[in-house]
Design brief:
The chain is mostly beta strands. The protein has three helices and 22 strands. Strand 6 and strand 7 form a beta hairpin. It is extended, with a radius of gyration of 30 Å.
Length: 438
């Protein structure tokens, strides 16, 4: 403490170690399979299994263990400045960063050997508390907060660099001959030196433009004691997420789309095509038109981890609190909020993020919360020292929450489409561009 200032400063350091071993077999029901280093046979029925006539054999080669360490360092300083007897300012600055190892580089594609560690992560924050009257306080603040990169996202983004020494896979089908003349023969697996193992033509990496996500957040609220031990708070909160990770795969090697198609949006009353209505021009995205080769024609997909997305959250809230009185504490709050995602959070065209402006899947407009705490003071039931020690400081609490549903996307039934590239929304559904998406 120095005069009217109360200073705090500190240092955080952690070192996380992650080691994933994938010797075991692959899960055939998994959406994404890392691979099976011990081999995996698939049979169509029990008779084929008894005869050794498998459908497909698959095996992964390379290093089954992926290990890395992530040091983290954080420094902070904060000053609580009591400017006036009724006004206090809080000012702080935090500087923290992670140090991910540089992944193993594929000489044919140097981008695989880089991870953009970012060290200039300075995060300021400011707050104030102003007591207008004896029973009224105004509080507010603004701050910037960086998030840390998840180790799982790092591993998935650098584990496939196109080198067979890192990871390669092979799939072999039964050729129809005798079981003992297959390659491999059940229950054997292929040696790691087998020429059947080839490097995957697909590569995953972290985009050179990747930036660590951060949030800008601000709040303002007024608290007033309306009754004895009862406080009413009315306030607002705003947050803006920047450089959020995209939930879709971005292919650096995908050639730009060619050509467009004009669609006609039929009114709900239309039952036949053609019809008249607003038009929508979209790029042609047929599977046969999506081709690789933008960066390297010898490679397949170059899946890059990107962070282009943004988020806007705005909320108004009302809260009533009654601190512990006669063993009971109660709290009620109502929040009205809107949460919008944009700029590539969920995209269907990686060359154009303009149609990704929509409510977040976590958007909830209305939320009501009731909470209560009861301290029964059971120690009053006994005069024994041991009994009072056992019965003291017990509490019973409960929280109830009521909230509105989350947004949804309208799906068009086949009956709603026609061969003339016109469509309408049928079965009573309506398309609201701000809240629902095709």
């Amino acid at each position: 403490m120095i005069g009217k200032h109360t200073l705090q400063f500190g240092f955080d350091m952690t070192r996380a170690w992650d080691s994933d071993n994938n010797d075991g077999g692959a899960d055939p029901n998994a959406a994404v399979q890392f691979g099976s280093f011990l081999g995996s046979y698939q049979y169509s029925n029990l008779q084929a299994f008894a005869l050794g006539q498998y459908n497909v054999f698959s095996q992964t080669s390379g290093n089954p263990t992926f290990s890395f360490a992530v040091p983290y360092f954080g420094f902070y300083v904060q000053d609580a400045f009591r400017v006036l007897p009724r006004l206090t300012l809080e000012m702080g600055l935090r500087w923290d960063f992670q140090v991910y190892p540089q992944p193993k580089e594929n000489p044919e594609f140097p981008l695989t050997g880089q991870y953009p560690n970012q060290y200039s992560r300075l995060a300021p924050r400011f707050g104030f508390a102003w007591q207008l009257h004896d029973k009224t306080v105004v509080r507010g603040g603004f701050g910037q907060f960086y998030t840390n990169m998840n180790g799982l996202n790092y591993r998935n983004a650098v584990i496939s660099n196109g080198l067979p020494s890192q990871q390669s896979e092979v799939g072999v089908s039964y050729n129809g001959g005798p079981p003992n003349q297959q390659l491999p023969t059940f229950p054997n697996i292929l040696p790691a030196s087998s020429p059947l193992f080839e490097a995957s033509p697909d590569i995953s990496l972290v985009s050179p433009q990747f930036r660590v996500p951060y949030v800008l957040q601000a709040s303002l609220q007024v608290e007033r004691e309306i009754f004895d031990n009862t406080t009413l708070t009315i306030g607002t909160m705003w947050s803006h997420g920047v450089h959020l990770l995209s939930s879709s795969a971005y292919d650096l090697n995908l050639n730009p789309l060619q050509g467009t198609t004009t669609y006609v949006v039929c009114p709900p009353s239309a039952t036949t095509a053609p019809c008249s209505g607003p038009t929508v021009v979209l790029p042609n995205m047929d599977n046969g038109l999506l081709t690789e080769g933008r960066i390297n024609p010898n490679l397949g997909q170059i899946n890059a981890l990107i962070s282009p997305a943004q988020n806007h959250y705005n909320a108004l809230f009302v809260q009533v609190q009654r601190p512990m009185s006669h063993g009971v504490a109660l709290q009620f709050s109502y929040t009205w909020a809107k949460n919008i995602m944009m700029n590539g959070m969920d995209f269907n065209n990686q060359f154009d993020f303009s149609n990704t402006h929509a409510p977040s899947l976590l958007d909830q407009r209305h939320r009501i919360t009731f909470a209560g705490v009861y301290q029964p003071r059971l120690e009053r039931l006994t005069t024994s020292t041991t009994g009072r020690a056992l019965l003291s400081n017990w509490m019973l609490s409960s929280v109830m929450e009521f909230s509105s549903g989350r947004p949804y996307a309208v799906l068009l039934a086949p009956a709603c489409t026609s061969s003339t590239l016109s469509f309408n929304v049928c079965d009573g559904a309506q398309w609201q561009p701000e809240r629902h998406r095709f």
